[in-house]
Amino acid sequence: MDLLSIPDTPKDITPQWLTEALCSTGISLNAVVTSLRIEPIAELTCAGQLARLHLSFSQSQSALPSTLVAKLHAPDETMRVKTRPFTPDKCEILFYQQLVKETHLRTPYCYYSAMNVPDGKYVRILEDLAPAKVGDQIKGSTAEETALALRAIAGFHAHWWQNEKLEGFDWLPGSPTDSDSMTCWVLDQYRKAFPIFLSKVGVLLTDAAKTFGEQLPEKLMDKPQFRKPPKTLVHGDFRLENVFFGASLGKPGFAVIDWQDISRGEGVWDVAWFIGGCLQVTSNRQVEEQQLLKIYHETLKTNGVNGYTFEACWEDYRLAISRYFVQAVLMVASLNPENDRENKLAQAVAERFIAAIIDLRLIDG
Question: What is the Cα–Cα distance from 361 to 70, expressed in whole angstroms?
Answer without folding.
Answer: 44
